[in-house]
Design goal:
Elements lengths: L1 E2 L5 E2 L12 H18 L14 H27 L4 H27 L4 H48 L4 H28 L3 H30 L4 H25 L16 H14 L7 H23 L6 H30 L5 H37 L5 H12 L2 H27 L4 H31 L2 H27 L3 H25 L2 H27 L5 H33 L8 H23 L7 H13 L4 H30 L9 H28 L4 H34 L6 H40 L1
Antiparallel strand pairs: 1-2
Length: 808
């Protein structure tokens, strides 16, 4: 089908290509196919009554005749309603009528005598001709809908041209009003077509094109307004041309899909699994072919090619400036280990070949050794790469709004130099988002998710320079139109980044993301403590913002998990944990950060209660951990195949067990410290008539309780210290730990003495003097505990790095 020079729709019909593109045609023709097939399958048997007579066959013949008659009547109606295709439609109707008559005659003869094979063959040929003719008729009828859609496309194209060529504001608004109406009609028609198409790629292309039309309507108006008033401004022309191009490409995509163009489509270039994931799969597939020792001369280069492809991709991730040093070192070490393992094993195979060992069992053993060692090494490398990419995702998608906000503030100030500096930072940020998204996609086998990530990343990359142009326009004009244009491009950018973030999250392992976020929050807490000690307000603010951002990301990812699951106890627990984190923990943390910053910036600076700040920070960590545990609870509901997969994963991570135990011990240490701080604050509240403690005996009992907790804390801290390498931080940790038993012993002795005195007096009075020493000792104990927690975190980080280096 195409447009001739007069603009009339011309149908190009290939009678040999009956490609059914829509589900509607299949639904209409399916009953006829069933009837004909059933008729063909009438068994050759003697029927009760006259020999060879089939009553069921005659019923089916009548049904086929009736269906054929309905097709003919409907075809005539469509032909009369659509003059453009009346001739072709009536021709197709005649073919159906002729084929139907032949089918009726042949099937009647067959029904009268179903035992004659020649009549069965004759009816089969007639049935084939009838189905061919009906299919042709239905496809031609479907082209009526295609014609209507193509007409709408032409109207929208003309509307875009009118908007682009508008010479004044009045004409522009009139043309935009018409364009909006035409576009809405096209979007609705394309939506109906999308639902009917059988090809998934075509459906995706139509969905993408419709989304572009929806998003760019307002953008076309604001960009055109600025250009009409300032046609000489290069940035205004660039904005307008960009939007027009996007709309035209969307219209062309709908046109190609509608006409069944199987060439390059809107999204086909983004299809396929991640490149690095494919390389890992290729290597596994090569290993699974079980090459014999005598074949290694042939198989060796193939294995080496697969491995080099993996190492090249791994190097790109390792060399990223956002890769942590320990991750980078681990990736390089694993790459070298995998390469060395392959060379050693291939050399061993070649040695066996040189010795002319013709032993099938030996060859099989060598093959199994190759697979076992190589697959283990490649799994370790893949696991390190995945953790590194999750690091990137956690860090880079933490704050996606600040660069844009800075750009807009600079544009509103009118400072063009500041705008250019901010534009450079914004562009770098956009490129970083795209790179990290690409890294995430390259390691994923989720083809649909990878496709969405690639498409979204391309949209971000294309939109970025136009956002910068909008900012430059605002800096130059400072008009209402420029402000509106900037806001529209801002909304488009934020929406596209959210889409990219959701796409990346969909291909990122949620449990891995949660675990990485927990570790990063601990790092940020430690950095906040350092900032308070050094009086660095900017460092404190930056790390506190990171804690807030990471917590919000964890909450969003958890709620996404909720949306992907059926409502129930599992989802309810996640929602509850997120609610506590967002509405109780984080507001308290934000308030605490504000107080700390005000204390540090006042003149003269005030002392910040570091223990209280650390306690509030660890509440955030605890809140995030509660969310993580709620999400992890879904593992209990996995089926046997998932259990098998998890078992395999556990086996792969045997070398990481010690590090995991260290992390778990550190988490328990933090929880103990939090409980002890709560007891200490209750004791302190007693001295100011606050808190739950009402009598001196209550304080004494609290002192006993915090002393017992301190003893447990010290035992756990000792186990952690034993696993840490020698370092200055370990020495600090041991020094703080030495204070803990002393304070615990002091609390025990003092509380026993005070308890005896209180028992003699009845123990129901509130005597501050009798418990002041207990409160002060509890404060000293808590301070030693928090200092131990802080130093133990740094020492355990050194342990993790040492363990990784040792394993590598």
């Amino acid at each position: 089908m195409a447009n001739n020079q007069t603009g009339q729709i011309v149908f190009k019909w290939n009678a040999k290509d009956l490609n059914v593109q829509t589900n509607a045609i299949l639904k209409v023709i399916q009953p006829l196919v069933i009837q004909v097939t059933t008729l063909m399958n009438i068994k050759q048997q003697k029927i009760k009554g006259r020999k060879g007579k089939s009553k069921k066959a005659h019923v089916l013949v009548a049904a086929v005749d009736k269906a054929t008659e309905n097709f003919i009547e409907t075809g005539v109606v469509i032909a009369n309603e659509n003059p453009e295709i009346k001739g072709q439609m009536l021709g197709a109707v005649d073919e159906v009528r002729i084929a139907g008559e032949e089918m009726s005659k042949a099937s009647t003869e067959f029904a009268d005598d179903p035992c004659v094979s020649t009549k069965r063959v004759k009816m089969g040929k007639a049935a084939q001709n009838l189905l061919y003719a009906v299919t042709k008729l239905l496809i031609l009828a479907d082209m009526v809908d295609v014609q209507l859609l193509l007409k709408s496309l032409k109207v929208v194209k003309d509307g875009v041209d009118k908007v682009a060529n508008s010479s004044n504001q009045k004409k522009l608004l009139e043309n935009m009003k018409d364009f909006d109406q035409y576009t809405n009609d096209l979007i609705n028609q394309a939506g109906l077509r999308q639902n009917e198409l059988r090809d998934p790629r075509s459906r995706d292309d139509l969905a993408a094109a419709r989304a572009v039309l929806k998003k760019h309507s307002t953008m076309l108006l604001t960009a055109s307004k600025v250009f009409v008033n300032h046609p000489g401004l290069a940035e205004a022309k660039a904005n307008r041309d960009y939007v027009v191009k996007q709309v035209c490409e969307a219209v062309n995509t709908i046109n190609d899909v509608t006409q069944g163009n199987k060439g390059a489509t809107a999204t086909h270039c983004y299809e396929g699994p991640g490149k690095l994931a494919q390389a890992f799969s290729d290597l596994d597939r090569t290993m699974d072919s079980e090459p014999l020792a005598s074949q290694q001369a042939v198989k060796g280069p193939t294995l080496e090619e697969c491995l080099e492809s993996i190492i090249n991709g791994a190097s790109l991730i390792a060399d990223s400036p956002y890769t942590r040093d320990d991750r980078r070192d681990g990736i390089y070490a694993e790459c070298n280990a995998v390469r060395k393992a392959l060379q050693d094993l291939l050399s061993e195979c070649m040695t066996n070949m040189g010795g002319k060992i013709n032993n099938k069992e030996l060859e099989k053993e060598i093959s199994q050794e190759i697979k076992g060692k190589m697959q283990k090494k490649t799994r370790e490398l893949k696991r390190k790469l995945q953790k590194t990419v999750v690091d990137h995702v956690s860090d880079i998608f933490l704050d996606t709004t600040t660069p844009l906000d800075d750009l807009i503030v600079a544009a509103r100030s009118g400072n063009k130099k500041l705008v250019e500096d901010s534009a450079h930072s914004f562009s770098d940020h956009a490129q970083t988002l795209v790179k990290i998204a690409t890294h995430a996609a390259t390691l994923s086998n989720n083809e649909e998710g990878v496709k969405t990530v690639r498409y979204s990343a391309a949209q971000v990359e294309t939109l970025c320079p136009q956002v910068v142009n909008a900012a430059r326009i605002l800096a130059s004009l400072k008009s209402q139109e420029a402000e509106e244009n900037m806001n529209v491009f801002k909304e488009a950018w934020e929406g596209q980044v959210r889409t990219l973030m959701r796409a990346v999250d969909s291909i990122t392992d949620v449990n891995e993301f949660m675990a990485v976020s927990e570790n990063h929050i601990l790092e940020d807490i430690n950095n906040c403590s350092t900032a308070i000690q050094e009086g660095d307000v900017e460092y404190l603010s930056r790390n506190a913002s990171a804690i807030t951002g990471r917590s919000e990301r964890v909450a969003n990812v958890a709620l996404t998990q909720v949306r992907n699951c059926q409502p129930g106890e599992y989802t309810a627990k996640i929602v509850e944990a997120v609610h506590v984190l967002r509405n109780e923990v984080m507001p308290n943390f934000s308030e605490m950060v504000d107080v700390a910053i005000k204390s540090m910036t006042c003149n003269p600076p005030k002392i910040v209660d570091q223990n209280k700040f650390l306690y509030g920070s660890y509440l955030v960590y605890d809140g995030v951990k509660r969310v993580t545990r709620a999400v992890d609870a879904n593992k209990d509901h996995e089926d046997d195949s998932d259990l098998k997969e998890n078992t395999t994963k556990i086996e792969e991570e045997e070398e990481d067990t010690a590090t995991s135990e260290m992390r778990s011990s550190l988490s328990d240490l933090i929880l103990l410290a939090k409980d002890m701080y709560k007891i200490m604050t209750d004791m302190t509240g007693f001295t100011s008539d606050e808190g739950p403690l009402e009598t001196s005996m209550d304080v004494i009992n609290a002192a006993k309780k915090i002393s017992e907790a301190g003893t447990k804390f010290n035992k756990l801290a000792t186990r952690i210290a034993e696993k840490c390498p020698e370092s200055a931080m370990k020495k600090d940790m041991l020094a703080y730990m030495q204070q803990i038993p002393l304070y615990c012993h002091q609390l025990n002795i003092t509380s026993k003495v005070k308890e005896g005195v209180q028992s003699a007096s009845g123990g129901t009075t509130k005597e501050l003097d009798s418990v002041t020493s207990l409160v002060q000792t509890a404060k000293n104990l808590t301070n030693a505990v928090f200092q131990t927690v802080k130093s133990s975190y740094v020492a355990s980080t050194k342990y993790n790095r040492r363990t990784n280096t040792k394993n590598q």
